[in-house]
Amino acid sequence: MTTRRLVLQLGALGAALAAAGCADAVGKAVADDGQLRLSMAQPPRSFDPAQAQLGHFLPFFQAVYDPVLRIDADGTVGPNLATAWEYDEARTRLTLTLRTDVVFTDGATFDSQVLKQNVEAFLAGNGPYASVMRAVTGVETPAPDTAVIVLSAPDPGFLETLGSAGGFIASPQVLGSPTLAMTPVGSGPYVLDAARSTTGVRYTFTRNPDWWGGQMPYDGIVMDIMTDNRARLNALKAGQLAGGFISNASDAVEGESAGLVLEQSQVNFEGLIMFDRLGTLNPALADVRVRRALSVAVNRKGILEGVLLGRGEVTGQIFRPGDDGYLPEYDDAFPYDPDEARGLLADAGYTDLEVDFPVSSGYDPAIIDSVIANWSSVGVRARRQEWASQELIPNLQKAEASVAYFSLAMQGTWRQMANFIAEKASWNPFKVGDPVVADRIDRYQRGDVGAAEELNTFLVENVWFAPFYRPNTFYLHARSVDVSPQSRQAVPAVYNFAPAD
Amino acid sequence: MIPYVLRRLVSAVVLLFAITFFAFVLLTLAAGGDTARNVLGDAATPEQITQLNADLGLDQPVLVQYWNWLLGALQGDLGRSWFTSQGVTEAVADALPVSLSVLLPVIVVSGVVAFTIGLLCAVRRGWLDRTFQVLSTLADAVPNFLVGVFLATLLGVQLALFPAVGYVSPERSLYAWAATLVLPVTALSIGAVAGVAQQVRSAAIGVLRQDYVRTLRSRGLSQRRIVLTSVLRNSSTTGFTMLGLQFVGLLGGSVVVEQVFALPGLGTLAVTNTSRGDLPLVMGVIVAAVTIVVLVNLVVDLVVAWLNPKARLA
Lengths: 501, 314
Fold this sequence. Notes:
CATH architecture of the largest domain in chain A: 3-Layer(aba) Sandwich
Keywords (chain A): Signal
CATH class of the largest domain in chain B: Mainly Alpha
Radius of gyration of chain B: 24 Å
Number of strands of chain A: 22
Helix content of chain A: 25-40%
Radius of gyration of chain A: 25 Å
CATH architecture of the largest domain in chain B: Orthogonal Bundle
Oligomer: heterodimer
Largest sheet of chain A: 10 strands, mixed
Protein name (chain A): ABC transporter substrate-binding protein
Helix content of chain B: over 70%
Distance between the termini of chain B: 8 Å
CATH topology of the largest domain in chain A: D-Maltodextrin-Binding Protein, domain 2
Structural class of chain A: alpha+beta
Shape of chain A: globular
Organism (chain A): Kineococcus halophytocola
CATH topology of the largest domain in chain B: MetI-like fold
Distance between the termini of chain A: 57 Å
Number of helices of chain A: 14
Number of helices of chain B: 12
InterPro entries (chain A): SBP_5 (IPR039424), SBP_5_dom (IPR000914), TAT_signal (IPR006311)
Signal peptide (chain A): 1-25
Number of domains of chain A: 2
């Protein structure tokens, strides 16, 4: 009898807890306290602006720092700490007109000297993004509201750099201090609330009441680190979060069908990267016919429809619509044609080709299996190179694969030239150079936009890259929030959130 | 008793030293010299990578690196994370309460429920025992992370009875803290109950067949008194040993469950940082985990010895 009573009492207690709504105990997407709750896939390495990174890391920096320029959701460069900017004729001197009403949260004021100190700290900081500022040779400060950034050579992507990871400005009083890594001091719209934050777990930002930019729509932002995609999706569906990045199409569709709003944009191109264009590891790859055969043997559309649920666009080029160099006809540069692939391989004398093919947990095995099966049907045998996910990028950049299925960001024409194509580019591991490529890059750097299209033609004809598609990236959010996807970034900027009408 | 405890503590220190040494060497070899490249990202230049390797001391021989780490650890400095700049001691101190918030209730719940079920099955047998046999096999067969996904989806998302994910510290809200623990504790307890209850049941059946139990019955003692004194006490040594093993097993098994419920515990810390090669943080987690395992084993041995004086401590 006693036992039965105890069981009944426990049951009643459980029911009471449930009725009281335990789920609400953790918080709602936009709680009564006006906090916007977001999930982030990774924490920042440091809050030191010299260590800033793109993509998933940007919102942490946007919350506490002001960038020199602001990149709007559509990718347009606009004013921010600098209200106007102008290049000289040689495009190596960028004159910035600076705001004079910006005060950091520690009371220091912003001027051209502070900009100079920040640029110098960035260059000395050996951060992940340091290479994008390597053209900077100095900063001149003719007046407190005027700064001139001097470049060794034109940098067509420099304004975007100042609007993203290369442009965040910290208080001069903490520059160079090790405390900056954990305790950011900026002039941005929010302040990191250390007492309500746990490094690597949760970052709580509260409104900066003295922000020169007016008022952001939320009193605060809470960014919870959730590395697991399913956990993020459950939190969104349960209403615990206002927004979060979702890494695969099926989960995105599931979230959408559960009543969440799905924002989609295209940030990367994904497909085969023909690293070994000189045949150093695999002599067959030196033959453009082999590279094209490997490309047209793959049923891009089938993979896109079958694995990515059709969320994306088939392409054969690395530039995206709207960017310099993009040519619509190259989206169909490598139509699926096994017969052509067999013919090309036969012409090249490789009827029984073997290719080492990296396989990593970072990519959906269904895609890799499809590529291998497509190749097999035209007589190409792929030998799987099993690599751990953290080994993939280092091994590729150490020239340990002749060809790989990989995803690269469409960072803009110039950045892609500098990072993927140029002889010294980090994603040109075999350091393949070509006079045509060098000439087109040089001309584009000096303002000849048409050179980008010529370069694209070279890349497609010589099959340096064999993209499959521009896959959609997914951002799910609650209906109570309006969100604009950020151009070129997987997650929206902190400025892109507002309460829904 | 005291010499025994001291001997165990000395062996624990030796164990800790050996494990940290092998772990450090293996993690360093597994990183393959690519840590700086992973920290800096794919746009880093070779010069940047060389500089960061020097800054982090990764250009030194692995034995020198371990020696430097050990010297720091002996002085209470486990270093800083290469990927978040956070102090390792601080990171582990943040994560440990989360893991213990889950594991300790699992052990308590498992202990109470498993001892109750085990004894009931041993005493009553019949349909109750047969039903339990089937259910415990089922509970053993289903991985706890799958139970976690099911609970999060049904009770967290669909019915919204409990938070689907997340953790709230008890300092912030005791109520919210308890609410966030219900689903992960349930997910982990189901398998643990099955395992411990099976052992308690078997031990209790053995005890019930002993001559002295028959003697107690013949002297007119009630079944309840016999079970709650003699049977429980004599079968509990097995149960407590099993609970200790469960705790150690759950320390590893909770890794995936922490991911499912987005709990920022030691498991999440270990998974996130092992995959990206954050050696200082992983070493911190290893030190914490080994220390916990040693302490739990020591406590279990002491409890068993207290319950059963025949257990030899020497």
